[in-house]
Amino acid sequence: MLRRYWAFKRECLNAALLAMIMTSVRRATECGRPIHVNPEPKSLEDALANLEAFSAECCGEDGGSSHRPGWKPVDIKPLVNNCFGWTEISRDDTYKALRRASRERCQWEISRPYADMDNNESRFAIVYSFVPKDELDPGIVQEQLDFFHLVGFCLVPFNEGNWRGKGTLVDFCDLVAPHSKGWWWVIMYRRMIVRSYFAEKKKRYVEKPKISIL
Questions:
Q1: Distance (Å, whole) CA 106 – CA 96
Q2: Of 31, 17, 32, whose CA–CA distance to 178 is shortest?
Q3: Residue 195: which H helix or E strand, with range?
Q4: Residue 195 and residue 136: Cα distance in Å, rounded?
Q5: Start-to-end C-alpha separation, the chain
Q6: SS3 for 27?
């Protein structure tokens, strides 16, 4: 059964959770004591245990974390987009902000949220660091997906449009935290492999017929 959720709420919760996780990662790096997790989590209990490994209670002020037999250190460098918080913006401010930040987008993409708003209506906005478009690196994307999986997140089906730079996720609604409603470990909690996606994309590009101009 499809579980409904409010995208703004999910993204705010995930942004806050990832900010705390990144604090633990930075502290562990500075102290030279890596955080250890179950390298092959399969259940909700595994996901919660791995997430707990990043908590202040487990890491302490000197970084790192205690670990159980079979656990391994996290050796992935996470690329988590920095979130500055949330705000409310008016219809006109929405249009102006989208024009400034999305000059490369086509006009209908810019005007769509603007057209859907009433004159006196405001919208919630989550403010992140700007990540420019670039050609995604499949290896970096896979590393980030592996990190999110190890932390305990369920991953919704891969959407290339929600990634920027070489491999930075910019839509945190692609993640479902283990304590959140809608965490489907039976169906969704598995390591996502995107190698075949990029291979198929490259194949389609190579096989694209060439047009000769006579």
A1: 15
A2: 17
A3: helix 195-206
A4: 12
A5: 56
A6: helix
Residue 166 has pLDDT above 90, yes or no: yes
Q: pLDDT tens across 64-103, in order?
A: 556 678 899 998 989 999 999 988 888 778 777 777 766 6
One-character DSSP codes across 138-189? HHHHHHHHHHHHHHT-EEPSP-GGGEETTTEE--GGGEE-TTSTT--TTTT-
Task: List all residues 6 or more positions away from 90 whose beta carbon is below 8 Å from its beta carbon.
Answer: 121, 122
Quick check: helix, strand or coil at residue 59? helix
DSSP-assigned letter for residue 58: H
Phi first, then psi: what are they for 163, rounded to 5°? Answer: -125, 145
Q: Which residue has the tokens 């050609």?
A: 135
- Categorize the per-residue pLDDT at 185 as very low, low, confident or very high, splitting at 50, 70 and 90: low
Please state the separation of Cα 4 from the chain's center in Å.
19
